[in-house]
């Protein structure tokens, strides 16, 4: 797998030898999620499925950002408590990923349940002089980090040109918020005797969850490429400053962006296509097939006509499934692994999840099944077909 940190392909192996701990940044539950989210979470789902197929246990954590100005604003507009908004779109998100057959997530954790942990991590960083307070806000001092900029591959000169959480008097322009002062007592603020009333910064939320849930260095963290800087760069700096473990996260995985007419698809730009709307025209398998036709690290435009094309290309796979009937058959795993198609499939998957190639192999195999249409060949090819289908996450409905 390509590691954003080293910029090289590296072998994945769980630190503890058996359970692979992976953490993907989940959505902000301010609205229904869009196809860009689908692209990202399908990629992480494929990774988890492939690890499971290879005999590892997988602990796949997805966090849910339910503390955010956009949620507070919407709640104000609708005149309901902000948790009402967060609860509603959290439920909708769970239903969307279930429909897309993203079944590998072991746990979803909501940020609002980890504010106390975030507070104590921030206090610890102040005590260790890795953070400082200014006008009631608390900032991470990046000059104390181990090589800040190493994840986004930026030099100190490049970083000096950037601003994060701009405020007069900060030590460095990219020092980022750990705790933000919110003077009023509206909902969504927490009181801390040393930090003052406010809210945790976005980046410390993930660190609080990772420390609470995994409790130790873990194997993989990621999300879409837009999160590399500042979000993941900041997280990495915090993780290492708090734990003293370098690296705290072994592997960083980032998915290319889904664009709309060349611009990033996002709710804030108003150019997003909701998953629920896409599902009115295409089913979950067709959407999955469409995304897997491209490599997960590619960024590309969302083009509905390509989805319709994917629908056609998926036809032989559906037909083969209906000929073979009744889903995964148990077969000797030796027999599967010795098969030439499966060997090529495994090679493709082991090469940074080369799903475009893996799909070609599946389509060819499906065409072979359709050509032969006899019981003897179905018996041999069936288990291979189902092993591949299961890894790629098609469900046929
Ligand atoms: Zn995150």
Write the layout of secondary structure elements.
Layout lengths: L1 E2 L4 E2 L9 E6 L10 H19 L3 E8 L4 H10 L3 H18 L7 E4 L4 H13 L3 E4 L2 E4 L15 H5 L16 E5 L16 E3 L1 H12 L4 E7 L3 H16 L5 E7 L2 E3 L2 E2 L10 H4 L5 H9 L7 E2 L2 H10 L1 H10 L8 H6 L1 H11 L4 H18 L2 H18 L5
Parallel strand pairs: 3-4, 3-10, 4-5, 10-11, 12-14
Antiparallel strand pairs: 1-2, 6-7, 7-8, 8-9, 12-13
Write out key terms for the chains shown.
2 domains; Four Helix Bundle (Hemerythrin (Met), subunit A); Rossmann fold; 15 helices; 397 residues; alpha/beta; globular; binds zinc ion; single chain; 5-stranded parallel beta sheet; 4-stranded antiparallel beta sheet
- Low-pLDDT regions: none
Ends distance: 31 Å
Characterize the quaternary organization of these chains. Answer: single chain
Number of helices: 15
Read across the widest sheet, the strand sequence of neighbours is 5-4-3-10-11
Say which molecules are bound, naming each kind only once: zinc ion
Number of beta-strand segments: 14
Report mean pLDDT, rounded to a whole number: 94
The proportion of residues in beta strands is 5-15%
Helix content range of the residues, please?
40-55%
CATH topology of the largest domain: Rossmann fold
CATH class identity of the largest domain: Alpha Beta
The string of secondary-structure elements, in order, is: EEEHEHHEHEEHEEHEHEEEHHEHHHHHH
State the domain count.
2
Cα-atom Rg, whole angstroms? 23 Å
CATH superfamily of the largest domain: HUPs
Coarse structural class = alpha/beta
Molecular shape: globular
């Amino acid at each position: 797998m390509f590691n954003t940190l080293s910029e090289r392909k590296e072998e994945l192996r769980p630190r503890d030898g058996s359970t692979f701990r992976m953490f993907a940044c989940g959505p902000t539950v301010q609205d229904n999620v869009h196809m860009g989210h689908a692209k990202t979470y399908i990629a992480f789902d494929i990774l988890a499925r492939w690890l499971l197929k290879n005999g590892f246990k997988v602990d796949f954590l997805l966090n849910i950002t339910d503390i955010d100005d956009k949620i507070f604003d919407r709640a104000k507009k609708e005149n309901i408590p902000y948790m009402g908004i967060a609860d509603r779109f959290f439920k909708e998100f769970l239903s969307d990923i279930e429909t897309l057959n993203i079944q590998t997530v072991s746990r979803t954790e909501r940020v609002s349940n980890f504010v106390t942990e975030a507070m104590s991590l921030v206090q610890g960083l102040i005590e260790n002089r890795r953070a400082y307070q200014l006008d009631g806000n608390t900032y991470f001092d990046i000059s104390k980090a181990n090589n800040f900029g190493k994840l986004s591959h930026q030099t100190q000169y490049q970083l000096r040109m950037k601003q994060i959480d701009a405020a007069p008097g900060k030590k460095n322009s990219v020092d980022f918020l750990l705790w933000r002062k919110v003077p009023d007592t509206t909902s969504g603020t927490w009181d801390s005797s040393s930090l003052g009333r406010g809210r945790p910064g976005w980046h410390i939320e993930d660190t609080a969850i990772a420390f609470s849930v995994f409790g130790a260095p873990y194997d993989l963290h990621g999300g879409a490429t837009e999160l590399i800087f500042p979000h993941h760069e900041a997280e990495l700096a915090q993780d290492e400053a708090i734990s003293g473990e370098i690296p705290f996260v072994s592997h960083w995985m980032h998915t290319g962006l889904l664009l709309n007419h060349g611009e990033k698809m996002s709710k804030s730009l108003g150019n997003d296509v909701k998953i629920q709307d896409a599902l009115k025209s295409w089913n979950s398998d067709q959407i999955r097939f469409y995304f897997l036709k491209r490599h997960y690290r590619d960024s590309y435009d969302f083009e509905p006509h390509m989805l319709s094309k994917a629908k056609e290309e998926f036809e032989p796979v559906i037909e083969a499934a209906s000929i073979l009937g009744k889903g995964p058959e148990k077969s000797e795993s030796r027999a599967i692994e010795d098969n030439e198609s499966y060997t090529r499939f495994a090679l493709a998957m082991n090469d940074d999840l080369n799903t475009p190639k893996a799909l070609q192999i599946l389509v060819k195999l499906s065409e072979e099944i359709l050509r032969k249409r006899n019981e003897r060949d179905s018996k041999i090819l069936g288990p291979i077909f189902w092993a591949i289908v299961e890894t790629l996450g098609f469900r046929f409905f």
